[in-house]
Amino acid sequence: MNNTSLSPADLKRALNPMKLKVSSIALIPAVVLLLIIGSFANDAFLLPANLLTILQQSSILALLVLAESLVLITGKFDLSLESTVGLAPMIGGWLVTSAAIGGSGWMVNPYLAIAATLGLGLLIGAFNGFLIVKLGLNAFIVTLSMLILLRGITLGLASGKTLYDLPDELTYLGSAVWAGIPASIWICGILFALGAFLMRYHRYGRAIYAIGGNAEAARAAGIRVERVTWIVFIVASLLAALAGLLLCGRLGAITAQQGSNMIFTTFAAAVIGGISLNGGKGSLGGALMGVLLLGIVTNILTLSQIASFWIDATFGAIILVAQSLVRLTGGERSQS
Amino acid sequence: MSSPALHRSTAPDPSVLPVALGVGLSKSFGATRALSDVSVCVHPGEIRALVGRNGAGKSTLVSLLTGMTVPDSGTIEFLGVAAPAPHARELWQSKVACVYQHPKIIPTLSCAENLFLGANMRRRKLLSWGKMRREAHEILDHWGVAIDVTAPAGTLTVGQRQLLEIARAVLAGSRFVILDEPTAKLDGKEVERLFTHLKKLQGEGVGILFISHHIEEIFEICQTVTVLRDGRKTLDRATQGLSKAELLEAMVGNVCAERPLAGTRSSEDRAAARLEVKRLSCRGFFEDITFDVRAGECVGIAGLAGSGKEAIGEVLAGLKAPDGGSMHLDGVRLPGGDVPKHNRAGVGFVPSDRQREGLVLGLSLADNATMAIPDRLGYAGFISPAALSKTSRRMIQDLDIKTSGPTQPVGSLSGGNQQKVVFARALARDPGVLVLINPTSGVDVASRIALFHAIIQAANRGAAVLIISDELEELQICHRIGVLRSGHLTKEFVPPWQHNDLIAAMEGIGP
Fold first, then answer.
1. Which among B204, B221, B252 is the end of a domain?
2. In a shared domain, residues B166 and B308
3. What is the rounded CA–CA span in Å between residue B468 and residue B300?
4. What angle do CA B253, B256, B262 make, to 5 degrees?
5. Which of A170, A92, A90, A74 is nearest to A128 (CA)?
6. Which residues does chain A have within 8 Å of residue B375's beta carbon, measured at their own beta carbons?
7. What is the pTM of this model?
8. What is the CATH number of the domain that holds B75?
9. Mean per-residue pLDDT for A272-299?
10. Domain residue limits at B57
11. Is the ipTM of this complex over 0.85?
12. A23-323 in CATH: which number?
């Protein structure tokens, strides 16, 4: 314990990234167990097509979880992400569709519409950040208000209708298949890998952990706490807008309720994946495992033809069980 | 020692039984033996000091005696009655109370409500606000605490909050009070007042276990002392006739306990001023402050809590923006209100409270120590694990940080080693000026010596050192001291100075 003369081998082992990411692999046994259960529950479960379906259906949630995890690790909250999932592509779709089906009738260039979708995500994040970082308002209240406000705008804009007949450019990312795998899985995988890498090996990633762990200490150490927090809110909303774009691409339409209630599942996956609601703790790898776990459970329940009404109850139970297990098996996650 | 009328003939006389008795207490956490075979006994009316370096086992002993942790072996008794079951919190609260360094009160509730919280409240069926206030007033009057019982407890000073907590404990029926570094956050007058109250309690037959890093206080207030070292008891005797050297020896073992006093280079040679502060003001904290610090010089700013001394350090570090005046380091103006710019310009900063402002406890030692220098660990903001490991290993060696390695979470280090990590970060850029606020507070003797060495080494490398403190021991290594009172620099001392004069100047007493 009190030995400073460590051998280089010891240090190498201690600094080995795999060892440090225990939290992200803690769910792997659970995921494997579920895969086994699934294979028994239904013969179709292990078919590549079904596994790809799981991944594709999880990819939208995964992007939101990525976004929410960044915000949570910073020690903040963003409830408005689910409404951004709805509003951002709704604006894009509204710009490119005819007035007859509820659009603006302007028939804007689809690429401009994509830019507007992502740009709106950016603006929403910047506005959240302004209220929370600059005005010092409570993140929970601000983003709850934004959740309601943005959903309201989405409903108003489309008069509650569903926009369809979207141009191919707008739906491309959500429906394309690259090398046999849906593009949304590629995008999600790459963003997660990039995120996990930056969180671990970039100063901004380390700053995010420091701010969530102790903002005052981070500030005294020369980290620009306000700036980083603001950027995190912007990145999160941008990711939510992208998730919305992928979702409408997959469905080929945008409903006024797109993204509605997703925030609960988002929090569930993040928390199951070991992201602390108090900030400063958790890894993106763990969060991704949380997403996969929920995705597999949903799939198994669907394949077993259990009424979808029961899926929410299952999610709730899973969160409680996961949290209790964490508490009972270690209880000292802060030490690990 | 006459026996009062007893309800049960078997009940022993409470006036001779120890208020707390722990026999053969041992506790291990994993592979670490935190406490082995320690016995401690506190009699009614006794104030017993519990001392030891950080990590010696004091906190473990306290958590055993307060029922927060269950011992591996050994027994605990209060007034001859075996300790309650581990989960009977309410019973424990009626036996023993612990007042921590940071008082645990509810700041938004009134003083009266705080006093009658929990067990004290449960005795009454319905709450009568008038009665509660009257009783609270009486109790606090008895304690000589002149506060408005309807005021939110958050408005009290730290000293008043402590007294409130002690009063609450005694009200709950506890005859045994543990005070965990009660004087760490108090100024001279408040310490004096606390001691007056402790003596009063002592007269009422309450036994007290007093934890402190200040050896003078132990001799002043305690009759007996228990010393722990590495989880074992090394001394248990009366303070009368005990020499400081014996006490230190029991605390630190064979480590040489000499002080590295006056180890810095003399500043007689009038080296060029590195840090120049002119007419600096920060509204609400200090006004019109002018001083300079030369290369290799150690300058002190002495002031009590509330003198505005911490704000000077925070303005120099860039945490607070000044309202007027200027700061120059080696002739380059410091912009104010921008920590990264100040840091890169060469300001190293040790904040006053390492837990609150110094460290991110959940992150590793390496992350904490290198937090201010990501630019030195790789390109374009990327951090190379190899560079991180190498840099933090060097820091661990330089400051002799006791740790299992760079990846150990900083929160699991002892207080002294945590402070070394804060130092490592301040020294990471080889700063031109080192600004230290209470740099050795709450740190054990051996760590303190190591920290002083680090300060002196920095000065010898040519850094300008500014020590902002109210601890005489920290100010002792300074070449000059300015006294800050109510936001103004009032007096300057150069060695040799009399401690009494310095204290008088800080308190604002005398000419």
1. B252
2. no
3. 6
4. 145
5. A74
6. 203
7. 0.76
8. 3.40.50.300
9. 90
10. 20-105+156-252
11. no
12. 1.10.3470
